[in-house]
Amino acid sequence: MIWWIYRVGWVEALKTVIKVLVPSILIILFNIKAGRLLFKNPLVGLFSALPTSIFIYRGSLPVVASINNWIDTKRSKYEESKDVIDTDSIPLDD
Q: Which residues cross the membrane (predicted)?
C-alpha cells in the first residue's frame, strides 16, 4: 500500500482501495446474510460466494464509479482554486 501511494499518489491509491473494498464488503455481507437465511450457517454462505460475487461485483461498479467521480470533482475544484492568482486591474488610460 505504501509503495502504491508513493508510485501513483494518495488520491489514485484511495480510488484503487475503494474499487477493491466496496465490492468485497458487499459480497461478504450478502453471502453471510444469505448463509444465515438459507442454510442457517453463515460459513456455508461464504463458501457459496462465487456465483453471487460476479453479480454483486458488476452491480457495485456504478457505486464505485460515483465515489471515484466525487473524489475527482473535489480534487479538481481544489486544484482550480489553487491556480488562481489575484491581480489588480489597471485601466489602459493610466
A: 20-39
